[in-house]
Amino acid sequence: MQKSRASARLFCFWKGSIVLADYPHKRLLLVVNPTAGRRNQRLLDLTLAHLKVLGWLVERYETRAAGDACAYVESYTGTARLVVAAGGDGTVNEVINGLAARSDRLTLAIIPLGTTNVVARELGLPSSAKELARLMDQNHCQPCYWPRVNGRLFAFSVGVGFDAAVVRGVNLAVKRRWGKLAYGLAALAPWLCWRSRDYQVQVDGQPYRADSILVSNGRFYAGSFVIAERMRLQRPEVQVLLIQAASPLALMRVLLALPLGRFERMTTVRSLTARHLSVQGAGDESLQVDGDCEGALPLTLSVPAEPMPVICAD
């Protein structure tokens, strides 16, 4: 049967195989965080322009508050089979959770507009609007695993200890104006008063202790720093990094290893792969989840068996 010019044939990897589906129209749902997009409005506008030239119809939704993107995507009843998160990593996190709560399976794409854009970097997404539009149009996607921490999915990182203390201290006004500099300023106070912690950790049932903990779902941390060389979003596991640093000096040595690409090689860092993780602490300290403060100890993490189709680079 002859297809109309507006029709789309979408290919997607699912559970290790290729799924072919025909849809009567090229239609996508665009979920935009207008605050995150201020510095990258041109990338968003150009990508949409290229998609429209390629025949895509765009349903646009702009978020208004935290949690808005998740709720809207979960309850969406339109016909779009591609959901595009246009914003930073926090927006991506919300869209992932909204998609996972649905009974059907929609494909995720990202237009990176945030401060660090770690997920986009993990997926190898280009900075060119034309190339982003091409990847979406040709539906280059792979199955990605989003681990679940305390009942909610995360995209790339969870932190306990120093990492969470830094994120908790970030001034949002400074972040909007100066970007990554806000994290450096927020790190000073917790670093100066850092002392030994005693987190009780279970990694796939094996007991450990640590002064600080990072959990990575991919290679990158805080933008371009590599902390888990072998980890990929396409693997059904996470990298658990247990940090032993009982003083500001010991912590500084670990932090300096980040830009040098030697984080996993530090003798004070133990790197383990896992599908299940639990962390107990002395109190109900907050967690860092995908660059934001969210939830609190105790922490329970697991990797779901079902992946999600996500647009990625060639």
Automatic annotation (TrEMBL):
Span of domain DAGKc: 23-153
Spans through the membrane: none
GO molecular function, one term: ATP binding
SUPFAM superfamilies assigned to the protein according to its UniProt record, in alphabetical order: NAD kinase/diacylglycerol kinase-like (SSF111331)
Cited Pfam families: DAGK_cat, YegS_C
Lineage top rank: taxon: Bacteria
GO terms for cellular component: plasma membrane
Keyword annotations: ATP-binding, Kinase, Nucleotide-binding, Transferase
Keyword Repressor set for record: no
Keyword Oxidoreductase appears in the UniProt entry: no
PANTHER family xrefs: LIPID KINASE YEGS, SPHINGOSINE KINASE
Protein name (record): Diacylglycerol kinase family lipid kinase
Organism: Aestuariirhabdus litorea
Lineage of producing organism: Bacteria, Pseudomonadati, Pseudomonadota, Gammaproteobacteria, Oceanospirillales
